[in-house]
DNA sequence: GTAAAGTCTGACATCAGTGTCAGGTTCAAG
DNA sequence: CTTGAACCTGACACTGATGTCAGACTTTAC
């Protein structure tokens, strides 16, 4: 598929898809005329990239991480270096803290919403 | 306490504390000479603000939210307007999605870490 | 009263992903 | 072949919290 369809199907802008390619997160074949042609699996890949971005990982780290993923398609997976493992462990801990913070914030919001939504006392 | 101590105790930079004040998130008394003087409760307030920032809320929304919080000190709480409730509900949903994304990303990282850490097969 | 540490305001820089625009090329349908 | 939609590259702008610096003032300790 071409970039427009991939953008539509993932909800990610064409601009971002091109950016992902520059950052080495996403590959594409090119037509004779130079237009990007994506494989079907690009859809899942893009969604994953977005999730990792949402988790606060920067593109550089995502680029290192992706080749080390256990790939259902059984691609030629690299094994993460010890340095990368250290970094990823730090990221994982950061994510755990972030989930904790989010849970707290969610409770705060929930409390305000509940309080405001309750019947007003006579 | 003055700004330096508050920064130290919360782990938030003085720069950010001043920014919070400009954004209407944090109030301070001033000494005769114009220096900020914070009450003890500012510590918890700052930590809460940080958590809300971490949850992706923008300062404007935090500024609206804070006066509507159920305050253990029983301050003069505002009741959230219906509009604000709508917005906060949207934020809560966003946070729920974010927690879902984070959980996915955490699993991805965990998988890579585990795979890389496992004993190498002979 | 003086020195040193702390604080003030205001301005400019940074980051990284994304939006947007311009000017040109490619593709697919008629 | 033509036309319009889709795509290309490159460049610049934006966001919003935070870093950093300059120059001046305040506070505290001696």
TrEMBL record, chains A, B:
SUPFAM superfamilies: Putative DNA-binding domain. InterPro entries: DNA-bd_dom_put_sf, MerR-type_HTH_dom, MerR_fam. Residues 1-68 form the HTH merR-type domain. One of its GO terms (molecular function) is DNA-binding transcription factor activity. Keywords: DNA-binding. PANTHER family: MERR FAMILY REGULATORY PROTEIN (PTHR30204:SF97), REDOX-CYCLING DRUG-SENSING TRANSCRIPTIONAL ACTIVATOR SOXR (PTHR30204). This is DNA-binding transcriptional MerR regulator. It comes from Kribbella kalugense. The lineage of its organism: Bacteria, Bacillati, Actinomycetota, Actinomycetes, Propionibacteriales.
